[in-house]
From TrEMBL:
Organism: Mizuhopecten yessoensis
Residue numbers spanned by region Disordered: 344-375
Span of zinc fingers (C3H1-type): 303-331
Positions of the C3H1-type domain: 303-331
Protein name stated in the entry: Target of EGR1 protein 1
Principal subcellular localisation of the protein: nucleus
An annotated Gene Ontology molecular function: 3'-5'-RNA exonuclease activity
Amino acid sequence: MTMFETVPVVDVHKENFKEIWPSLLLSIKTSTFIAMDTELSGLGNRKSLVAKSIEDRYKGIATSAKSRSILSIGISCYKLVEVTNSLNKECTDSSEEAQGLPQGGVGPGGCRWKFLVQTYNITTLCEEDYVVEPASLKFLVEHGFDFNRQYAKGVPYCRGNDKVDSKTDTMSLRQLFMEILGAACPIIFHNALMDLVFLYENLYASTPPNMAAFLADLTEMFPAGIYDTKYITDFKHKMPASYLEYVFRKCLRTNKESSLGCKEHAWVEFPTYPAGFSHITRCNCVRPGAAIPSHINKDTQDRLKATVCGSYAGHGWCSRGNSCAKSHDVDLILDIDFLAQSKKSRKRKRRRDNNPKTDNESGGLTEPEEEQEMETTIADMSIVAKEESEVCEKDSLKSSENGAVILPGAVGVGKGPVVSGKHRAGFDAFMTGYIMASYVSEYGTYKGSLKMEDVGLEEIQNLVYLTGKDIALSVVKSGFAKTSKDHREKLSKYC
């Protein structure tokens, strides 16, 4: 389904961990790619997160990871099951030749890339002392995180290196992380660096003393590559904003339009869970209000624009939080952005119609100028300094401004409750994976193989977003770097 009203998320905790373990492993081992997200007890010194030196930035995050903890982990397993064209024919080179269609894996009107998706939200509990920052605690509580449930039912784990006899524990969070590494499929994050460092320290081994060793370890841990959807959004796709919910809602709209227009699009389906399976929560994806009409006058547009929080529109974060008097509705932000772009498109069309020359001859917009105009609406609404807001964006990715609220009367037999909350770790992981699926359908080329390594996305692989930088962090092993001692010892135990 291109559009879906709810997303099923399997809630995993200490009491059902062993029960769900077999299906969780099967999902991981059969995935085309795995999207992950984490909820954290704090981020540490904010200044270190935007340090000019990338080495200092890494060391600051690593220090935080040794004293903070992971509160929950989201895992969303995406399996590409088929790629078909509008005639429901497989988009292979042979089928194209047989039908006289153009080469390149695209049938008439483009291909539908269908994914089967299973998503898990694992509540975790670090068994060692850890810091919970007051600001993070307040933020999480305001947005629906249940600390009582976490302390009562969190799946236990310890940070740093493996404890003695830890390998004998065949069903643990650390073993689960090793199973993810063993699946050797691409791993997807949105703003990956923080998640990578915290996962390494909390579920793998003590973080290396320097970034060069850390990157060398990552290349061996994730041989199929790491994809950062925030980097892809900013540097490849170039959306006006790149925070998680904005990109997800935008991709939902784009896929719906592309499906109706028989263009390339991602299509997701979910398993049918048995009626007696009580561990499902369904996260609501339906927009809370009606869409803005496509043709409204400028005064109305300006009034609507004035109701939107500029900080949240631009960066997905607002210092006022729930007390902000302005709207944090991402669908409204997208509607306003669409209206502004439509108006500019009509102006360009009239300009071309009145002066039928090439765009460059007539003074029309070049491609970079068009991209700049597309960003104008959101840029105008943004009122917070970029570095400050992007540092805090990691918090905003972890809990929604709308909170996780159970909708009355929304429980069905075998279906689980429907929650309106966004940005639980599980739902965040799903959104991250959905964005990646959308980019696979847009930028990938299907040539008969359902493996990520064969769809031609190498140019955006192993590039991690860096806040405040106009370059990415390249996850490669330097010719002068060695993998860390703890990493080598870890692999020797499991290989």
